[in-house]
Amino acid sequence: MTASDLLYDVGAIAAFAIVGCALQALGYFMTDLLTPGRLADIIWRERNQNAAILVSANLIAVGLIVFTAIRSSHDGLAAGLLSTAVYGILGLVFMALSFFALDALTPGKLGALLLQEDRHPAVWVSAAAHIAVALMICAAIS
After folding, report:
1. What distance in Å separates the CA atoms of residue 30 and residue 55, rounded to the nearest whole number?
2. How many CB atoms lie within 10 A of CB 96?
3. Cα 25 to chain centroid, rounded
4. Domain extents for the chain?
5. CA 104 to chain centroid
6. pLDDT tens digits along 24-38
7. Distance separating alpha carbons of residues 113 and 56, to the nearest angstrom
8. Could you count the other beta carbons within 10 Å of the beta carbon of residue 102?
9. Fewer Cβ atoms within 10 Å of its own Cβ: the N or the C terminal residue of the chain?
């Protein structure tokens, strides 16, 4: 491996990491928009476990999609970065749609359940839906 190969690889890793982190941030903000209140306050100040579970599932789901997209990209750096971003955004769209579908099919408002102090089982169902959607996107990518 030459020094220029190493520099290229380090740059590619950094570029994929930037795309992945941007998608993670986008997933966080999407979850923040779908739920009442401000997640930063709800999780870090109020220490709400329901919101933390949902955000954690979202971050894992996005990470799975980004991982699969990176592992499946063989068409060069630019195409790999683009496909990773597109697949990540697609996953976020479908996670949001699953949140709306679950909210419509179940009693109460899912977002309001997140604000409860006690853990609510519906949060686990929503978290599982996020991961399940991500796994479907991962299977479609690979």
Report:
1. 10
2. 18
3. 8
4. 3-141
5. 21
6. 999 999 999 988 889
7. 16
8. 16
9. N
The residue to which tokens 């950094």 are assigned: 14
Rg (CA), the chain: 17
* pLDDT tens digits, 94-123: 999 998 998 898 888 888 887 888 888 889
CA–CA gap between residue 80 and residue 71 (Å, rounded): 9
Q: For the stretch 107-135, what's the b/e string if a residue is b when 16 or more beta carbons lie within 10 angstroms of its beta carbon?
A: eeebbebbbeeeebebbeebbebbbebbe
d(Cα 114, Cα 54) in Å, to the nearest integer? 8
Confirm if 61 and 129 have CB atoms less than 8 A apart.
no
Give the residue among 26, 40, 56, 44 at the shortest CA–CA distance from 124.
56
Cβ(12)–Cβ(77) under 8 Å? Answer: yes
**φ/ψ of residue 48, rounded to 5:** -75, 115
